[in-house]
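Sample entry (223 residues):
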Amino acid sequence: MKPLIIAIDGPSGAGKGTVARAIAAQLGYRHIDSGAMYRAVGWKAIRDGVSLEDEAAVTALAEGARIDVSSTQVTIDGIDVTRDIRTPDIDRAAAGVARLPRVRRVLVDQQRQMGIHGGIVMEGRDIGTVVFPDADVKLYLDASPEERARRRAHDPAHTGVPAVVADVATLLTQRDEIDRTRAASPLYAAADAVLIDTTGKDIAAVVREVMALVHKKGLGAGG
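Predicted structure, serialized as tokens:
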């Protein structure tokens, strides 16, 4: 069977990362968190004193950076930023970077190169709509705002996140508004994506549901 491209989109806290990693592990595929690339660019821009309002400068930064993303580590120019990019400040920086059309073009091109031969599970906000509109499997994961806030508040991968769920909910609502209203590649479900509400669902159950969709197409693991 040919290696697949599996696209998983959805808002923060919907379970994309956990599900994407599990699916990739079961299929022996590469897992890519596309959002980590925007976070890494935002982190570097802040470190280098580059204004996120200066699209030309941020684009040049993205073009010249060496970003490597795996299931366990994110590096930019050889610097491990895995933990550093999971903070509220970088959440805001990533949202600012993601609004810049020229930066998106640079990163989308890199993402397409990563998946050109298939064998990839990529998660983000525009994977099934922009990056891989012809993906073999398209999913859109969502959950109630309360569930998403609770998950993010208790996610050890995110440092500096307010412990109060209500505060996290406010941050997520702000990020949702930015993602859904930006001119460049706004967040929405592709017309042919399978919608999965993960509210109250065990992650293992969601993974089984996704794997059933993969096999329903008569497609399986490939390397």
